[in-house]
Structures are given as C-alpha cells and as structure tokens.
Design brief:
CATH topology of chain A: Rossmann fold
CATH architecture of chain A: 3-Layer(aba) Sandwich
Structural class of chain A: alpha/beta
Largest interface: A-B, 40 and 40 residues
CATH superfamily of chain A: HUPs
Distance between the termini of chain A: 45 Å
Radius of gyration of chain A: 17 Å
Strand content of chain A: 5-15%
Number of strands of chain A: 5
Oligomer: homodimer
C-alpha cells in the first residue's frame, strides 16, 4: 500500500502543483481545505475540482472562523489593494496577511495526519514571490516541523514544501511538466460575483507575470 | 492601560489557576475556550462561570471540529479508562490524548493575540501529573513559541506556563493563595448527565489526590 500524505489544498495554482507532485511521488493523497471566512470562497470550488481531478483518497473541507478575529483584507471588510507594483508588494507585510493562518492550517493537517497514520504533510508555501508573509518562510516551516514532532505521539512528521524556493514561473513550468490543468485553479483575492478573476490584485498580478515568464498561456478568465 | 494577554481557559482546575495568576499580574485578560466535540462539554459552562468571576475583558468560545478526526476517547466513541493506578497512567500516552490539540489551541490563541496586539499567551499545561501528553512538555512549549515568533508580523510573543513544573497539590496551593474558587471548576472526563464528576477517570483521580496532598477540601460533587 502506498504511503499516506496530507496535502493542504487551497484551490490556487501553487497547491494544485503540490498535489500533482505528491501524486507523482505515489503518495496516497488526503487533501485538506479550509473555509475560513475568506472573501474569495470560490477557491473552495476550485479545490473540490482539483481534488476530484487527482482522485484523492479523501478531501476534507474544515470550517474555521478566522474571520471572527478580523485583521485581514481576506476575511474582514477591508479593501483588497489593486494594481500595485512588485516594489510596493515587497515593501511591507500586505494587508491580505491573515494572522497565524498557516500555523492554524498546519495544526489541523498535523491532527489529521496523526489520526491517519500519515507522516508526510505537503504545503505549497513559497518564499520567493510572496516573501511578505512571514509564515511562508523556510525558518517558519522548520520551526513548525520541530514543534509537530514534539507535539505528537508519532513524532516522525516531515513537512514537504516543494515550491518554497521557486519563482511563480518555475512553479508553472514544474506544473506543466506534471500535467497540471491550471484552468481548474484560481488565484484572485477579489473575484467578481460570477467568479471571474479581477486581474488587478497582487495575486492576479503575480499569476499573470508567472505565466508570461514561463512562456505558457494563462487559461484564467480575467474580468 | 494594562497589557493584554490571551488565556486558554478550559474550565478545569489548572486553567482557572492560570487565569487567577494572570489577573494578579495585572494583565487585561482575554479568555479563549474551545468547543471541540469533547464529551465533557460541561467544562464550557465552567469556563463561562470562571471567566465571569474574573471579569475578563472578553471570553470567546471557538467551535472546532476535532471530533471529525476521531482518534481520542475524549472526542470519539471510545470508553474513558477508569480506576487506573498512577503507574498505569504513566505507562503510555493515554487514549484521552487528542491529536495535536494544544498545537491547534495555541494557534488560535496566537491569531487572536496578534489581532488584539497582545504579546502574552497563558496556558495551564503541566508536565508533572500529566506527563503522558507530549504537547504539555516544556520542549513543546519552547518550540511553539519559536514557531509563533516566526509565523507572525509582531514576532514578540511570550508563552506563559506558570504551572508547568508544579504538582497538582502545588497548583491547588497556589490557587488557594490567589483565592481561586475551585467549586467553579470541573475536571472529570466522563461526568454524569447531570454534570457530576465520575470520580474514577484519570482526571478525577489526580484531582482528588491533589486536594488531599494540598490539605485542602475538594469542593467537587462526585457521583
């Protein structure tokens, strides 16, 4: 029987690529997504399609109330910044930062992994294009892995971050080589009611640029 | 204005003592409890009474679905062990262990603390009487604190564990000196439908013994 792995799956470009990678590595994949009050909840529909496409062993959508804490443009009633340059994006931690989000997501993944008897957890964090988020850095991942192994009975957890040092273009090139259908994925923080990407938030800008640099056609429908 | 602190409050003896300690240290206290599918959900009523008694600035009860993962006698349909000796309790990690529970609780506390602008988080873990739980050990707390400071914008978090090296009797003595009303607290893992403590689970046994050793009358009504 193949080894089990828990894959954090947001519905975005990065986590779809990570799921493809874990699948290619012959893991039996348990995908976990979160309904956390994000305004871009359409990403959960994308996550479901991606999970089905990859025929995961199980896909769980966990509802958590991060919105109750406020503090982020992704969960509170704060405008998503538009049309920023990369210098502006990199100047400070963006308002789209959600306090402790990856810590909470990884804690749930850890709980599920321990119950499943899975030692491997995959997360699509990236320290290159999104360096503004502190919980995407290698130091954070290493610290969480250490914490996970002290927190649990099993104490043999490995966090896999295959994208952490890749540019968005490199992630897309990797995904294309793995056969990812990026039309299933969504990146926009502030889509139209019909689910079309705005084309102007940081996430859309980085996605567009990534496809251009990778020399791949972007299948996204922008507003 | 006094400094804010987030206090994890279960409704048990330990966390009530921790809240008393934080109150005495003049923190403005934000109490956080969890409805996580525990069979002993009466502890949430106790948590509410304790929070009111200490006039906390705010008390949040966060609903999380740990039960969906199964794997513990506290959340799944597994019998709670009764009348065990301390040697039996210490022989292995007990079936009442909930996978990654403190990691998840601390992650939520971290998110709330960051939004509140609080740098201090109090948790009533104890490595003496409950050494069977890996996520109550000092190594775990230190690793989580390090993770918290890498995960967040603020990066100045301090985890306070005033009980970590105390015996149950010492915790009760400390609490009595702080004026804790232990009649408000509850420890039982498997209470009667009316909320009376069973008197026979590990938690009841350790509570009883603690009061005896501290030379304090146990106000608990046992079945």
């Amino acid at each position: 029987m193949s080894k089990k792995a828990v894959i954090l799956l947001s519905g975005g470009l990065d986590s779809a690529t990570v799921l493809a990678q874990a699948t290619v590595e012959a893991y039996s994949c348990y995908a976990m997504s979160f309904a956390y009050g994000q305004r871009h909840f359409h990403e959960l529909d994308a996550a479901k399609k991606i999970a089905a496409y990859y025929k995961v062993a199980e896909h769980r959508v966990v509802t958590i109330d991060l919105g109750a804490f406020g503090g982020s443009a992704l969960t509170a009633d704060i405008a998503v910044p538009k049309d920023r340059t990369e210098d502006q994006m990199n100047a400070a931690i963006p308002i789209t930062y959600v306090p402790a989000r990856n810590t909470i997501f990884l804690s749930y993944a850890l709980a599920w992994a321990e119950v499943l008897g899975a030692a491997d957890i995959f997360i699509g964090v990236n320290a290159v294009d999104y360096s503004g988020y502190p919980d995407c850095r290698p130091e954070f991942i290493e610290a969480f892995e250490r914490t996970a192994n002290l927190a649990t009975k099993s104490a043999n957890f490995k966090l896999h971050t295959p994208l952490i040092h890749l540019t968005k273009a490199q992630i897309i090139s990797l995904g294309m080589s793995l056969g990812v259908d990026y039309a299933l994925t969504t990146s926009c923080y502030d889509p139209t009611p019909e689910g079309k990407a705005c084309g102007h938030c940081d996430s859309c800008i980085l996605r567009k640029k990534g496809f251009v640099e990778a020399g791949v056609m972007d299948p996204t429908e922008y507003d």
